[in-house]
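Pasting two entries for a bug report.
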Amino acid sequence: MRIKFAILIPLALASFVHLANPVGFPDIFFDEGVYMRRAMNMVDIGNPQESYLYDHPYFGQIVLAGILHVTGHPNSVSTDPESLQNLYLVPRLFMGLVAIVSTFLVYHIAREKFGDSTALVSSVLFAVMPFTWIFGRILLDSILMPFLLASILCAIHFAKPHGKMWLVPASGILLGLAIFTKVPAFVFIPLVLWLVFQKRRKIQDLLVWVVPVLLIPMLWPANAIMLDQFDLWMRDITWQSQRSNSIGDIIGAFLIVDPVLFVIGMAGVFYSAIKKNKFVLLWFVPFVAFLFMVGFKQYFHWIPVIPVLCMGAAVLLLDLKKLRYFQSNTIHRGIIASVMVFGFASTVLIITNDVSRNQFDALSYVIENYEDQSTILASPAYTWILNDVFDFDNVPIDYAMILFEPVRTERVTIIADPHFMLDRDRSIQMQKAHNNTQSVSYFEGDIGRYDTQLYPYTNLRLVNEGFHIDVRSGSWK
């Protein structure tokens, strides 16, 4: 009974964190609009491939499309900002449930590998530390997490003396679906392969496991071949592998969001290396090595290693008792409790803010002042709503489409949010769009209420698409 009660603690905490304010925090990120647009395309035409860009496999939009279809979303909507904001309620609630399921799986993986105490501490860290708010975004990295974690858990159970053989193909199917969601998940093949192989050391087990791992993701290039677009698939795969960013920037972003988890998590990984814990090392090292080779791009690319950082941190915190200075139960438990309370308090201070409302105030203004003979240039966070909910004409799926297609109207309206302003100087067309228009309405948001140099409000530097939105209009010709 004690064990059954223990798991309720991280689940209750995760439920509060992820379901209390699902749409208000974080802001609606550019990529979320991309995945919503693709899901709506899947619902409308039944084809997971949108246009000619092959950047990610299909399972993410298939899952989202299934949720939208089953719930009948989107329902009727008005131009009121609150009504527009609720268009993200169902998918954001789904992402919250995905985070809760991931918390459940983190608990069970840690319990099987390290014991009850580590399971409780690591799952609570996963549930309450500030980095957890990122799991609320509609991102492929978050969607694949339950499949990856369940694959690992199946392999762990198979490795037990009485583990059933059906767990092997089940683990393979789950990891195959994770890769079919986002390709970098393939770096976890060595970890799960090792878990499966260590039981009987038979090649047959590996073959049964690896077949679905390889075949399921192959549906992606197979579909490109059916559409006679395999050359485009190869081109885009090459482009994806050449994207890069500074490792310092990505680490810096992690420290802005969650310096405590970063420090104790990394310390836990190093501690595991000293103890030669293969499970932790096989989870962490291949993933980070891959991202070093291919190039870090976004802070949320850390998501698949957050569970093992929490487990490593939990092992380290619990083993502090072996040191002379922490042998007192009061001091030892106080340290662990302090980390958890600090993390939870920091998270609550930021997730209870509504930072996305400003985005829908701006969108509401654009919809209510829409002109048939004007092209609207905006982030996908807005364009899927304009196209799929309001059936507006002359709305490219992404403002960057003006680089590839001519603007056919005499006037343009721009939702110049921070993402647009970041991209503005990357092309002549984008500069022209901005320079040929004038500000007609400016939406500041509530950023002035916060000191973003003071933690935990430093997190607001990464939700800045909800602030400073300039709606501009003017002649294109």
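Entry 2 (this is the one that rendered wrong in the viewer):
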Amino acid sequence: MIRKALLCNLALFPLTALAIGVPSAAPAHLAFQDSARNSEVTIRAQLVDSLTVSNLENAPTHYDNSASVRLYLEGFFTQAFHFSARVKVFTDYTNRDIPDHFYNPEEGLPYNKQSENKRTWDIFAANASYDLKAVKLMAGFDYLEWGPARRNHVILRGEQNPYRPWQDSTSRLQGPAPTPYFGYQFVLGPIEYTQYAAKLFEKKGYNKYIHAHRLDLKLPENITLGLSETSLYGETTELAGTNPNPDADSAYREFEWAYVIPFVPYVFQEHLQGDRDNISLAFDLSIKTIRHWELYGELLWDDMKSPTSMFDDSWWGNKWAASIGIARDSLRLGPALFGWFTEFTRIEPWVYTHHKGGGYTYAHYNQTLGSNLGPNSEELYTKLDAKVAFVDVALFASMVKKCNTFGSHIRDIHTPDSPTNKHFLRKGWTDEYQELGGSLKVEPWDVISLELGYSRFFGDYEGYTARAAGSLQW
């Protein structure tokens, strides 16, 4: 039954491709516009079908088919008001069992179980902005992303979701989730200030919030320096008395309006509110002084005592994460356009966790808001891509280390009885693997694209994943 469903879905794109094989001069979208061009609404649609085959050591071969319908809406009403929205509706088939979902955010993104091997689910995102010249107002239900990292954002990752072998499961959907938010932005010459207040979801019926503000300084020689803070808090999600930390049962938490005021340092504001919240400080840097080159980095301090404590492993609370990279874009060699980047990421133990439990962790729908490597991990990643006409080829390699000791998962809770020191990538408890892979994307016309991908894993994870996908868009 499952195999038949997979074949039926995969047959869609070759047949459709034959039907529309002749390029059309018609635009690949539907647009409405007033005569003065002060308003415009654009509608796009896309059909996507994919098959992923995974064969990892000590596990049977798995087949996962996903078919989706995607709609996109964007435009503006006057030059000041801009908006966009997108919705994706999925039907997944697999040859492995799908567990029940009870629509609790702790279980990850919600889905509807149709049978033991079939589920449907959907997700949407939308945003709008209104520019008052002095300030831009923003609101939406969307992904928040900060920092220049190309592989692993350690601050706010947005929709970044690299595949990890330990995610090879149907117990929950692994992708990040959008969040409802409102915010504003000031621009004064080379200075840009952005602030958000957002609702997070940890457990049904429980409040959880994150506030984030950021200062971007555009320096000479095409250098950008970013400074940001986040404050995260919520209601206690664990059963009363199960967390031995004396300040863990915080019970009900309301939205803290003081965090909405611009230019107020969170680290100071938190003290005035009882020193109850999860505060982090972050820096990022992008240097594009040399044309087509970029040197970048992100650094997250999570409850650090002082800058020098980064190198002190005697206290578990000295938590930090960093991504640094170098990239070369738009390198023309004959008919091909090349680009490459190399990035190194290190995440210390206990980063993104909090001793008060789920209401304070740096997580949303059981997924970290930062890199999905999670705490106590590191990765070295390199990617080379080349584009010739409508063909895009990429090769990549990575080396990953992920520890499994206490303090290596976002749901771990440090208690008064836990060791006060920390061990980064503790020997004997760390999984190490290498990944080599590539992808091929062909887009001969605006209305059709085909994509193939393959990854081979070596080390503590042995095996491969292969993916084929096709899409029609209009």
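Dev reply: Rendering is fixed now. As a check, the viewer should reflect this: Residues 1-27 have pLDDT under 50 and may be disordered.
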